[in-house]
Design a protein that fits this description.
By secondary structure, the protein is α/β, with parallel strands linked by helices. It contains 19 helices and 26 strands. It folds into three domains: 318 residues, Glycosidases (TIM Barrel); 207 residues, 3-Layer(aba) Sandwich (Rossmann fold), CATH 3.40.50; 63 residues, Golgi alpha-mannosidase II (Immunoglobulin-like), CATH 2.60.40.1180. Helix 5 runs parallel beside helix 8, helix 8 crosses helix 14 and helix 15 packs across helix 19. It binds beta-D-galactopyranose. The site of beta-D-galactopyranose has 8 residues, from loops.
Length: 688
């Protein structure tokens, strides 16, 4: 049984950099961590030189000394492979290990993540080091698990080195086998892009308007993801040969790659780096202030949960953000570290590790503050962490429980990548992603993300009563079949505009839309258009059983629909422009379930109408009355329910508890009207 996420305990940790502090500080630091309630540290992710100071010269004494001390002090350790920061001696001698910009200029030593995943030399040198480290350290009793690299694909997710060029060619060669097939799928007859020899195929390069063939770019994004997954796989395969059986392998953060595949192939669970204070950064604040600010991190946490039902937080905010070159932000206000920690736990984390123990006195991140400032002075933030540790001791039974949502948004990585390269698609995804999340948040409707992958079974979909697939632009007939089966068995499915447009390589279908989803949706698209800017906001009138129809925004894009089955029912029509009166919302019963086809996007208002009218909003309305400022999350275990009420506002709010519940932090049963302080948190239990 792994030390973390064992289903019995929630644990706090921190990130520590012994190589950045004088050795005579180590012991005191470890003791003080314990005294703060921290029992795990993560170390070594940027310390290659401490293991291999010169090519093929290995020296394990530095971390041996540190791990000896950890064992004396009973501190548990997550040990990292240091491949995110190749040493200067390595990149100087072998510049081919460096990443390159699209124009071929090499990304040089001096920051981090300057390597590429495909360089045979870097793969060999990393494998060698990981193997030596595993041989040397894996049996250490203080080590409980390993982190591979650090934030794979962070800083950049584009790779244009020579090794990537060669590997990309191999990747598409394997995929298509013949040039004829590649030419066909990439549509290279368009603008005379036909390839006549494999040597002509490259990673996307500089083109006139940077509008490189979209089918090629889609494959390139898959290639980068594949490279990252193989990178983690290479290291994981080595580690597995040496690890103690109970030790885990993880990596941290979600950065534009198929994290689901990476986790399945190479990790025991995913960990995430959670920095809600980004929302208060000076340079981004204007963009955020109309939105949900730090509550947005609940969305990220839901993404992590989709990758790994059990997960941990490897880096949790504990001070102000800041690089010397960017990211100015305030220090978390009193209560915010606790609020954000509980946000992570509410969403399913059973391990939370603060970044970092003490603020660095050198380098690019001197303003990325840890629990302590530069000196070791006792401060408000360490007191808050101590308080959290105390509170967790009253919440231990929550460990191993599962986040509960009745609603999920369906996604695929192909759609995500297509929306990154296709501006039309991007607009829709952005609008609906934000709208649905905001509507769910403000109506206190817990929500999951569900990714369709190769091999996804219908049972995974059946965990949810309602699925929303906002824009199934890229979709295969297998995926359509899976959705069909879900609905046939009783599921409810909402589809938005542009469904069924593209095949898996991003080519548009010549079938009537929604293409492979047509029979399921019982609707057909007769015409379509982006909303004309001079038309302003379009609206749909949703008939409301005799009462005044509900008006819902139909922003960005409008599919003009027509019923396509005898049992399809038009529920709403556009009320503006030349298509006023044309169906915009069609309901189609299918098997035991129902599909709603909506010809547009889901703004917050639109999504809220759907959640309310279909009966999914406020699922805990019988227990609580909460203001918009509060999030509610529910974790369940063995019939017991644990509710987290999180107040993201700086001001106190009034909440109403309609039944008697156990307040886990205060250890008493509570009911009635209550005041929740600014940034306050309540954890309540309802016995099954
Ligand atoms: C994370 C990274 C850490 C540190 C932190 C603050 O993305 O993993 O190493 O850089 O951000 O910038």
């Amino acid at each position: 049984m792994s030390y973390l996420l064992d289903g019995n305990r929630m644990i706090l940790g921190t990130c520590y950099y012994p190589e950045q502090w004088p050795q005579d500080m180590w012991q005191n630091d470890l003791q003080r961590m314990h005294e703060t309630g921290i029992e795990v540290i993560r170390i070594a992710e940027f310390a290659w030189n401490k293991f291999e100071p010169h090519e093929n010269v290995y020296d394990f004494s530095f971390f041996d000394r540190f791990l000896d001390l950890c064992e004396d002090e009973k501190m548990k350790v997550i040990f990292c492979t240091p491949s995110a920061t190749p040493p200067a001696w390595l990149t100087e001698k072998y510049p081919e290990v460096l990443n390159a910009r699209k124009d071929g200029v090499l990304i040089r030593h001096g920051e981090r993540r300057h390597y590429n995943y495909n360089s045979p030399i870097y793969r060999k040198m990393t494998s060698q080091l990981v193997e030596k480290m595993a041989q040397h350290y894996a049996a250490r009793s203080c080590i409980i698990g390993w982190q591979i690299d650090n934030e794979i694909n962070c800083e950049t997710d584009e790779f244009y080195s020579q090794s990537d060029d060669i590997a990309f060619r191999d990747f598409v060669h394997q995929k298509y086998q013949t040039l004829e097939k590649l030419n066909q799928e990439w549509g290279t007859v368009f603008w005379n892009q036909t390839y006549t020899d494999w040597s002509e195929v490259h990673v996307p390069r500089i083109t006139n308007q940077d509008s490189t063939n979209p089918h090629e770019v889609l494959d390139y994004k898959r290639f980068v993801s594949d490279s990252a997954c193989r990178w983690a796989g290479m290291q994981s395969d080595i580690l597995r040969r040496y690890l103690k059986p109970e030790d885990f392998i993880t990596t941290n953060g979600l950065f534009n790659l198929d994290n689901h595949r990476m986790a399945q192939e190479s990790l025991d669970f995913m960990t995430y780096d959670c920095y809600p204070n980004f929302a208060y950064m000076t340079e981004l604040y204007d963009g955020w202030k109309e939105g949900l600010l730090d509550r947005e991190w609940s969305r990220n946490l839901s993404e992590v949960r989709s990758v790994s039902g059990r997960f941990g937080i490897m880096e949790q905010q504990s001070g102000a953000n800041g690089w010397t070159t960017r990211m100015e932000s305030p220090t978390p206000r009193p209560g915010q570290i606790r609020l954000w920690t509980m946000q992570s736990i509410a969403h399913g984390a059973d391990y939370v590790s603060y970044f970092r123990w003490r603020t660095s006195t050198m380098g690019t991140e001197i303003y990325w503050h840890g629990i302590l400032d530069y000196s070791s002075r006792e401060n408000r933030r360490i007191r808050e962490v101590r308080q959290i540790a105390g509170e967790l001791s009253h919440m231990q039974e929550i460990a191993g429980s599962t986040y509960r949502a009745r609603v999920a948004v369906v996604k695929t990585h192909d759609n995500e990548w297509d929306a990154q390269l296709d501006r039309w698609h991007h607009r829709l995804e952005e609008c609906s992603e934000n709208g649905i999340f905001a509507a769910a948040t403000h109506t206190h409707t817990p929500m999951d993300y569900l990714y369709l992958q190769a091999g996804t079974q219908v049972e995974k979909l059946q965990k949810y009563e309602l699925l929303i697939f906002p824009h199934a632009v890229v979709i295969t007939s297998e995926q359509a079949g899976l959705l069909e089966e879900y609905v046939r068995r009783g599921g409810k499915l909402i589809l938005g505009c542009r469904a069924g447009l593209k095949n898996e390589n991003g080519r548009c279908t010549m079938q009537d839309l929604p293409g492979v989803l047509r029979s399921l949706s019982g609707a057909v698209v007769t015409e379509f258009s982006p909303v004309a800017p001079d038309d302003g906001m379009m609206y749909v009138k949703w008939e409301n059983g005799g009462e005044r129809p509900i008006r819902l925004p139909a922003a960005e894009y409008n599919d003009l629909l027509q019923p396509d089955a005898s049992d399809s029912e038009v529920l709403g029509v556009y009320n503006d422009s030349y298509y006023a009166g044309t169906p915009a919302l069609i309901r189609h019963p299918h098997g035991k379930g129902t599909v709603w086809s909506y010809g547009s996007t889901f703004t917050e208002q639109t999504a809220a109408v759907f959640l309310n009218r279909l009966g999914f909003a406020e699922p805990y309305g019988d227990l609580f009355e909460l203001p918009e400022q509060c999030e509610i999350a529910c974790r369940e275990k063995a019939g017991d329910r644990y509710f987290f009420i999180l107040n993201y506002d700086k001001k106190p709010v009034h909440i109403l508890l309609k039944k008697k519940l156990k307040d886990m932090l205060r250890g008493e049963r509570v009911t009635g009207e209550m005041v929740l302080s600014g940034y306050g948190v309540m954890v309540l239990m309802q016995e099954g």
